[in-house]
Amino acid sequence: MKNRVVITGMGAITPLGNNVETFWENIKKGKCGIDFIKSFDTSEFKVKIAAEVKKFNPADVMDFKELKRMDRFSQMGIAAAIEAVNDAGLNGIENNSREKWGVILGTGIGGFITIEREKT
């Protein structure tokens, strides 16, 4: 017999919203997350636009000690995973049953800050 998989919670940190509800509302409204880059000076680059995540504060969901050891993309992934766990109602679940559930995390690419820091 095959085990079934059920999606019970979702989380999102995106250019269209920092939670599932805001993201979905903006999708339905046809909003676009692409804008001029504001997170760094683009004067030396040809590309001036991107789909940046805006107003994301990882300290809202994570401890400072954890934050300083993670790239921004990891912080976003963890924040989305926390939202998914809360959305599924699993946040207060007993430790002994946690081996029965998991979080699937997807990212297109990440770690640019670390890659840039390591090459300089």
TrEMBL record:
Signal peptide: none annotated. Residues 3-111 form the Beta-ketoacyl synthase-like N-terminal domain. One of its GO terms (biological process) is fatty acid biosynthetic process. The keyword Translocase does not apply. Keywords: Transferase. One of its GO terms (cellular component) is cytosol. SUPFAM superfamilies: Thiolase-like (SSF53901). GO terms for molecular function: 3-oxoacyl-[acyl-carrier-protein] synthase activity. InterPro entries: Beta-ketoacyl_synthase, Ketoacyl_synth_N, Thiolase-like. PANTHER family: 3-OXOACYL-[ACYL-CARRIER-PROTEIN] SYNTHASE, MITOCHONDRIAL, POLYKETIDE SYNTHASE-RELATED. This is Beta-ketoacyl synthase-like N-terminal domain-containing protein. It comes from marine sediment metagenome.
